[in-house]
Specification:
Two copies of one chain form a homodimer.
Chain A: E1 2-3, E2 6-7, H1 10-28, E3 33-34, H2 36-43, H3 47-55, E4 67-68, H4 69-79, E5 86-91, H5 95-101, H6 105-108, E6 111-118, E7 127-128, E8 131-135, H7 139-146, E9 150-153, H8 160-170, E10 174-177, E11 190-193, H9 196-208
Parallel strand pairs in A: 5-6, 5-9, 6-8, 9-10, 10-11
Antiparallel strand pairs in A: 1-2, 3-4, 7-8
Helix pairs in contact in A: 1-4, 2-3
Amino acid sequence: MKYNDREVPEVVIKRLSRYYRYLGEYLNEGVERISSGKLSERMKVTASQIRQDFNYFGGFGQQGYGYNVEYVYNEIANILGLKDGYRAVIIGAGHLGLALANHESFKKRGFDIMALFDNDKDKIGNVVNSKPILDVADIENFIKKNDISIAIMTLPKVRVNDIASKLVDWGIKGIWNFTSAEIVTEKPVAVENVHMSDSLMTLSCKIKQGD
Amino acid sequence: MKYNDREVPEVVIKRLSRYYRYLGEYLNEGVERISSGKLSERMKVTASQIRQDFNYFGGFGQQGYGYNVEYVYNEIANILGLKDGYRAVIIGAGHLGLALANHESFKKRGFDIMALFDNDKDKIGNVVNSKPILDVADIENFIKKNDISIAIMTLPKVRVNDIASKLVDWGIKGIWNFTSAEIVTEKPVAVENVHMSDSLMTLSCKIKQGD
């Protein structure tokens, strides 16, 4: 990913989401200014790492007495695209799809899950956390009419790439992929993969190596 | 985390899991040796990054003609603790808990989910993907008797830290935390947090900044 023509490593983007979360906590606590040292203690990254990360985005104007929490929070929200608000659909109303439909923090971040799609007649017509489960045959129409930008993939792996390219044609700008399939599309699309096994192996490594 | 007394950044550990996955693919394809250049193309990280990461673990002996796939695969498995095999329980049999219980790739990696626990009488006694849902009141006994090392936290956030310290006392060595609660325990324990919102914000950033 590039910001102002400068390549930003993916790991910095991931930390940006974390900074946003932690700054939100400070904001809730009524903290107005925060030093990189204090932020570093809470987040368990070094202060120099924080300054280095922030420098990809112009540094967020740290003064001698620290960062302005609200300013940096808003700037990061803007970089992350959270100010724009995105509408999403979940494709695959299995357990994981239902769990994501019930996740309360996405809405707060500006992500609105509008519906789930499935091909199981027993599920179609049900409502989960105020979101309808619709027939996957109607997905093109729904995406186009409701200005949907994000597709959340919780369908069986083998069916992912039957639909991925079509989704992009219909207007999807980002795919949040929970399957182990690698997303292959004709036109470019933003993809974020969630590899559960990688996370579990990381835990295993921490256990094995004594954290 | 430290390896041979040298601090290894968390991001390197995360990439180690990815290397392991990709090397497993090469192994399945019958590839015996692989250059960092070829691996770099498939994984979309630079070859120098790969060499730098591997150097934390002694370099895995690249020859002029590349890495021995099986050797590196096995070495990484060992570092990740996958050779040891871990038994896990899921605490909280909601949608996410059920989705994880149905996830087929954990077993393959050496993680054996033995049971789910819940306090809902309607769920207790059910079986999910051959794993029983048991009464959370019986968890101490189960962990001790079955040599359980990993607790997967999919229970409501507010109840996480009522149980976390007890789990460690009963023998849990690692907590895989899907809640937004920060794990606080008296004795040290390995923790891996899965922050769904961070991942979604990363996707949002890729959309906003044009990937």
